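Blinded run. Sample ID left blank on purpose so nobody reads anything into the name before looking at the predicted structure. Input follows.
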Amino acid sequence: MSEMQAATQSLQGQRILVTRTREQASAFSERLRALGALPIEFPTIRIEPPQDWSQLDAALHRLYAAEQSLAYDWLILTSANGVSICMQRLRALSLEPARLREVSPGLHIATIGPATAATLQDYGLHADLVPDEYVAEGVITAMHEWARQKELSLQGQRILLARAAEARKVLVVELKQAGAQVDEVSAYYTRPVASDDEQGREILRRLQRHELDVLTFTSSSTVRNFASWLNSCAQGAGLDATELLAGVRIASIGPITSQTARDLGLHVDIEAQAFTIDGLVEAINHAVSA
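Blinded prediction complete.
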């Protein structure tokens, strides 16, 4: 094998569990497969839109408000899922996302990271603000810096925060402490998927036979639902969950996900420096190749 081939196959034979949603898993798996890994998809969550659209619809209509006193100053989107659901809902309401800048030229859009910004671009919109650190705290820091550079204040800024119903509250709390008016609206819900079905039993057998090398987690919800599934299955089969994970590396997309894992008694071996899928792949590659 040439040096170039060795570099491109640096994860050769590594059996890596991908716990993202079924819709998002394929891109992650492709990146792993390109490095020679054997990705095994086991979604632990699924994304559900709200059963009652009324609150989100009212907020989305307000984005297009002609009356300045009703218009939002900011739209904050903290995930690609949130972008997709909001933009698709706008179209369902006969509101074209690409016309938002034309209708509301004073609106600023912040996304939590480049992947979220890229999804937004698919709908003809660009993000005005993408923080250097792709977590809620990074958004707050970036908005304060934006206000400082503009010689403005966040006091009185009208903000729509459309995101997962289960999201952490730090963003809302700190923006309100800065004097902003924040409408927090649930754009979607994260539901558990993993269960004691044939796929789940196959993953459990792999863990029993120590046939998985790396478990990957891309959000706190993937960790929580995996841990819940594992503890339930282990208890039902009379197994020790800790022993099932012996020798398996756990890889996390960032510090928030890592902390959730630790809170659940899991040991995090690999953490991405850039809190993206590419960053996670790079971190796994570095750890395995070291």
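Unblinding after everyone has recorded impressions. The first strand starts at residue 15 and ends at 18.
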